[in-house]
Amino acid sequence: ISAGSLLDKLRALPSFKPLLQTGLSVGGELSQFLQLLTAPTTRILKHWFQSEPLMATLATDSVIGAMITPDTPGSGYVLLHHVMAQVGGVRGAWGYPEGGMGAVSEAIASSARASGAHIHTNQRVSSILLDSVGRVAGVETEDGSRVYSSTVLCNATPAQLLSLLPEDALPQDYRRDVAAVDYTSPVGKIN
């Protein structure tokens, strides 16, 4: 955690100005607003409900995609974020693409191909090739094939990406920080 006042830390946030404007607009209800942004889901749900099964059901919206628990400070905002969203004008609704997420990927690929992109699939990349000044020059696949390009898009996690680059391609402090990221999650999702 960096040194400095809370105000200094808030000012460093990209969303500080809209957050400040919202805080000023709620006036006398600022403490409730701050609690909403910082409270754990469990505190918010216990304030409004008594039924454990109902609270457990509602708490699921506070952990989806967040890799946190309902007891984590700020998870109450995640709950609010999920229940106030809307699809097709219906608040709290969730949308699923027709054909599943694969259909979304195919639509993106189709658009990219129409713009001249070449997409290579089912070819495990063993390394990202760099030119003499450290810019991306393409990839090498496990079978030794090379695909040259000035732009490479992939779906690797940052940790996987590090394993594809030469050791000296990125600063050591960045490599250390990425290596410390925990990708485990307590969440499972069944549709």
From TrEMBL:
Ranges of residues in domain Amine oxidase: 75-186
Q: Where in the cell is it found?
A: Mitochondrion matrix
Primary localization: mitochondrion
SUPFAM superfamilies assigned: FAD/NAD(P)-binding domain
Q: Which domain of life is it from?
A: Eukaryota
**GO CC annotations?**
mitochondrial matrix
Q: Which PANTHER family would you find in this protein's record?
A: PHYTOENE DEHYDROGENASE, PYRIDINE NUCLEOTIDE-DISULFIDE OXIDOREDUCTASE DOMAIN-CONTAINING PROTEIN 2
Complex formation: Interacts with COX5B; this interaction may contribute to localize PYROXD2 to the inner face of the inner mitochondrial membrane.
State the family it belongs to: Belongs to the carotenoid/retinoid oxidoreductase family.
Q: What does this protein do?
A: Probable oxidoreductase that may play a role as regulator of mitochondrial function.
Recorded protein name is Pyridine nucleotide-disulfide oxidoreductase domain-containing protein 2
Report the source organism.
Answer: Hirondellea gigas
